[in-house]
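Consider a typical record:
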Amino acid sequence: MKAVALKRYLPIANPESLLDVDLPRPTPQGRDLLVAVKAIAVNPVDTKVRAPKDKIEDTPRVLGWDAAGVVEAIGADVTGFKVGDRVFYAGDITRPGSNSEFQLVDERIVGHAPASLSVEQAAALPLTAITAWEALFERLRVPRKAASGKAPSILIIGGAGGVGSIAIQLAAKVVGLNVIATASRPESEKWVRELGAQQVIDHFGDIPAQLKEIGFGQVDYVLILNDTDKHFPAAAHAIAPQGTIATIVENSGPLDVSLLKAKSAGFVWEFMFTRSMFQTPDMGEQGKLLNEIAALIDQGVIRTTLSKVLSPINAANLRQAHADLEGGRVIGKIVLKDF
């Protein structure tokens, strides 16, 4: 089968950083689906895993953690899918990724693709939808039903990226929070407002001062989607007493969580691969939430965050997508389709 893989971890400008390869087609066992991959999306995790390091792989390593496709075959223990089903999923970081014609993925972390979307529109969603959903409803514990009275507020730092683009929609359109998103360019501000952000501030500026200017001395929730080291002090200043901060971005230095003590505020991590990596008993919750996302899409409540499509799926186009992501100016999601 065709695939894009790496053997060395190189700068993306190096033509050998991602290579076109031919690999054996895998066979499903147990609860695995064999998916014929039709479209894939790229995420910051792809570039982080691929980042230069002194390591050489004995066999080509396939990256990619976002896909939409069709079930080609199933393992003996599969109960929720059949051959021919349209599916979408983010996969498992401990297994070969989605940048290949066929991929094995545990049925528990797979959803039925939205009926109203094209394959490329569906591929833009899984990783960011899982991350945003888990961050909001499981880490920050935002109530699914809006309470009466004044709507709680959430500050989403990095609103125009893939996760932010879904988190804004879930927070504003599904839960009814008052969403303040950060964006630094006119086009990204336009994007986050279209998705449902009521207020927009610039993450390159003084965040607490900007919040005060728009009438928010404090916010009930903060979701950090960009540069935890830089934004944690501002988040700690902005969070309301007994509020919670969540981040998806690893820190490079110590974070002063003592800033949260007087407020009895919480700080939590979201990593969407936790369930599959540790085979947690609730691993199947990811498949369920993907089905809920699909329903929200098909009902017109939220929309795909696809912003750019490249074709075909090959090393040259994936290198371009990685370079775009590393440039830090991508709005929404980049998708590749068709081998």
